[in-house]
């Protein structure tokens, strides 16, 4: 406090009975001296802020005040914390007071509040479902003597909140003025206590309007979160073992029929309301509301189809056939294209779980109808689910439908549909695995995705076969990317015998100018090598491997991640001959520590591919280079490979002793990093099943000397090793 500023005055009443001013009261007095630059802050806002930060608030009071707060971040906070706070509220109060407040959060004008609330709504709903007995929606379900509640308590209304507990005031301190919210709370009448022997009944439909409001939210992230919440609820209802069978049936029926299917029938509810509310004198002031209702009903039907797609694998074939297929059948006459688009995707999801007879009798006619839709969005959705449908069909039917479908979509007038045909061709071919009897037209369509060249006759693929200019053969930079990504699946399906038919397209892709094409091939090089065998790998893929070692870092990274897997696919002689080149590989990535770290991760797998002498002569020197790296992450990765190195050479006494000698050299290294590495290697060994006696014989004396090392980093590493030994219950007698 400045010297020229008078201290705050102390009043006589504050020193009653000769006591000093209480610290809390002193803080209150100091708060009265508000600086002038804050004098324009609204007093009510400051008081509300002080009340909301009051730790004496009960969970129920905190929920009510935060939900009703004018500050957005308060409502965001309570939306996120409500699942935990509500557990501390008496269930009868949670039903009577908190339940109506959920509607305020679900319809809050601020997107941030609804975005925070939507991901938590399933946890809150499950709290009510798991604590309240459920009762079907009947006219008797109104609040009475037994504590039951109305089945749909979701209409926004101001809940009556219990009084805050009275805090005794100190006689020496004048009572501070109450805030408007405090006065409001105390003016509310006290609520009668629900007898503890009677829990309030809850209708399963209590949360349906709230879920519908969130699912229809114009903010797509909120709607997506609400869909995830519905999916989570369905999973818990179907899988929770402790749910009463009768209540489980009620919840299942309401969630699937009331929420999922009900949101697709909003137009029917609207029609019923119009019949009841239509003005007899023909007033047309509600035309705008009717138009808005139609848009909401269309959005509801689209949401229903989206939910059916996501819930199909969860609810099982019986419920899908009984509840979802009839609704999907109605979509053939749906006038709104984006509803049909989602319905086409739902066909694929349902085909993945329904039995063959329903697929052929119900789903395929709907699918064929959508496949020739006038809107390309719908046709594209059909194209994207073609592989899923074909995977469930018998071989002959699968081949016929796959050829028919890919020809239809590859020749579509829409470029988006043609691109989708290219995207799914690899997945479609993979559905014929493992018998490998793929129709030749599908193979040719796939090969046409590769690089193309102009000829005097027309467009020709790299294998020399011409094809029509319907879209698949048109120049598109994304097509080689799709072809490269799907190549491993196609090679796996067709097998080694068809490699010679595929390799020309593959070689052209390896030389593609796009980095993402070459990176995709680098990441999958080992997978193709596994299929075609060692001799063809040496003949055709080793040159690709070497060229990619000199490529861009993105391509090298894809290669380094599976370095050991590819070398394992080489013939044994070639593998041993290539081993000395690993140091050249390290030199090639000397500028990029992340690539060196990837190589260091491959060292344990590389050790298992070679005999003890090759490990000592080639793998160990490379590992030592890694543990001397300037980057700590590379050194730590290399240290973790030593248990495997010791395991590989354990049966060769000469190599084993040589390994111990090379490791112990680090204990007397002139650089402290080397001595730290020695301790870290010992730590890695004791963390595995390395024999205790051998560890004591080979490393304990050097570790004892490092206990008095002049560099603290070494002593810290040693302390960590001792801690690990103590944790494992290992002790040594020095």
Automatic annotation (TrEMBL):
Residues 152-196 have a biased composition (Low complexity). InterPro entries: ARM-like (IPR011989), ARM-type_fold (IPR016024), HEAT_type_2 (IPR021133), PP2A_Regulatory_Subunit_A (IPR051023). One of its GO terms (cellular component) is cytoplasm. GO terms for molecular function: protein phosphatase regulator activity. HEAT repeats lie at residues 502-540, 619-654. Keywords: Repeat. It comes from the Eukaryota. Residues 1-24, 138-200 are annotated as: Disordered. Residues 13-24 have a biased composition (Acidic residues). The keyword Repeat applies. Residues 139-151 have a biased composition (Polar residues). This is ARM repeat-containing protein. The lineage of its organism: Eukaryota, Fungi, Fungi incertae sedis, Mucoromycota, Glomeromycotina.
């Amino acid at each position: 406090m400045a010297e020229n500023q008078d201290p705050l005055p102390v009043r006589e009443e504050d020193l009653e009975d000769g006591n000093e001013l209480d610290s809390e009261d002193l803080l209150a007095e100091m708060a009265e001296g508000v600086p002038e630059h804050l004098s324009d802050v609204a007093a009510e806002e400051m008081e509300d802020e002080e009340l909301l930060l009051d730790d004496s608030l009960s969970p129920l009071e905190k929920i009510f005040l935060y939900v009703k707060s004018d500050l957005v971040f308060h409502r965001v906070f309570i939306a996120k914390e409500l699942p935990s706070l509500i557990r501390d509220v008496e269930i009868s109060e949670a039903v009577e007071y908190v339940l109506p407040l959920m509607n305020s959060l679900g319809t809050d004008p601020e997107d941030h509040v609804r975005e925070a609330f939507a991901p938590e709504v399933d946890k809150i709903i499950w709290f009510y479902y798991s604590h309240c007995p459920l009762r079907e929606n009947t006219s008797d379900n109104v609040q009475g003597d037994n504590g039951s509640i109305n089945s749909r308590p979701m209409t926004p209304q101001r809940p009556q909140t219990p009084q805050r507990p009275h805090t005794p005031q100190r006689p020496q301190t004048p009572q501070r003025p109450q805030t408007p919210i405090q006065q409001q709370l105390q003016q509310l009448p006290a609520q009668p206590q629900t007898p503890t022997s009677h829990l309030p009944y809850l209708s399963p439909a209590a949360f349906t309007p709230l879920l519908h409001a969130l699912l229809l939210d114009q903010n797509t992230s909120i709607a997506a979160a609400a869909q995830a919440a519905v999916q989570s609820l369905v999973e818990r209802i179907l899988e929770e073992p402790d749910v009463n069978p009768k209540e489980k049936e009620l919840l299942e029926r309401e969630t699937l029929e009331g929420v999922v299917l009900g949101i697709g029938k909003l137009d029917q509810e609207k029609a019923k309301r119009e019949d009841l509310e239509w003005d007899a004198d023909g007033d047309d002031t509600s035309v705008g509301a009717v138009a808005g209702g139609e848009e909401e009903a269309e959005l509801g039907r689209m949401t229903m189809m989206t939910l059916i797609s996501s819930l199909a694998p969860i609810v099982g074939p019986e419920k899908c056939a009984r509840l979802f297929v009839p609704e999907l059948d109605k979509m053939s006459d749906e006038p709104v294209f984006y509803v049909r688009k989602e319905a086409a995707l739902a066909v694929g999801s349902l085909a993945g779980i329904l039995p063959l007879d329903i697929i052929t009798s119900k789903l395929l006619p709907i699918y064929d109808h959508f496949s020739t839709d006038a809107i390309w969005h719908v046709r594209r959705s059909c194209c994207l689910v073609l592989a899923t449908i074909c995977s469930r069909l018998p071989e002959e039917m699968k081949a016929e439908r796959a050829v028919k479908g890919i020809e239809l979509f590859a020749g579509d007038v829409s470029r988006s549909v043609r691109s989708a045909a290219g995207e799914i061709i690899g997945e479609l071919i993979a559905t014929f695995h493992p018998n490998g009897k793929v129709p030749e037209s599908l193979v040719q369509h796939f090969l046409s995705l590769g690089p193309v060249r102009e000829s005097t006759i027309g467009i020709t693929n790299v294998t020399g076969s011409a094809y029509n200019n319907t879209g698949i053969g048109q120049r598109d930079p994304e097509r080689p990317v799709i072809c490269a990504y799907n190549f491993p699946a196609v090679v796996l399906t067709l097998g080694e015998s068809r490699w010679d038919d595929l390799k020309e397209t593959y070689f052209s892709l390896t030389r593609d100018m796009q980095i993402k094409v070459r990176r995709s091939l680098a990441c999958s090089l080992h997978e193709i090598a596994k299929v075609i065998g060692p001799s063809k790998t040496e003949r055709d893929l080793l040159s690709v491997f070497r060229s990619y070692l000199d490529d861009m870092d993105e391509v090298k990274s894809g290669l380094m991640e599976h370095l050991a897997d590819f070398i394992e696919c080489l013939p044994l002689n070639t593998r041993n001959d290539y081993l000395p080149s690993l140091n050249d590989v390290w030199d090639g990535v000397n500028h990029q520590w992340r690539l060196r770290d990837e190589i260091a991760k491959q060292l344990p797998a590389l050790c298992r591919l070679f005999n003890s002498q090759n490990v000592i002569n080639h793998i160990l020197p490379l590992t030592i280079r890694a543990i001397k790296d300037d980057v700590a992450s590379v050194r730590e990765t290399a240290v973790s490979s030593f248990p495997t190195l010791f395991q590989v050479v354990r049966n060769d006494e000469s190599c084993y002793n040589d390994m111990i000698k090379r490791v112990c050299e680090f204990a007397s290294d002139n650089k402290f990093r080397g001595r730290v590495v020695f301790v870290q290697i010992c730590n890695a060994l004791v963390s595995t099943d390395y024999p205790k006696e051998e560890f004591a014989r080979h490393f304990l004396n050097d570790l004892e000397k490092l206990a008095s090392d002049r560099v603290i980093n070494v002593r810290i590493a040693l302390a960590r090793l001792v801690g690990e030994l103590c944790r494992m219950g290992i002790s040594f007698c020095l």
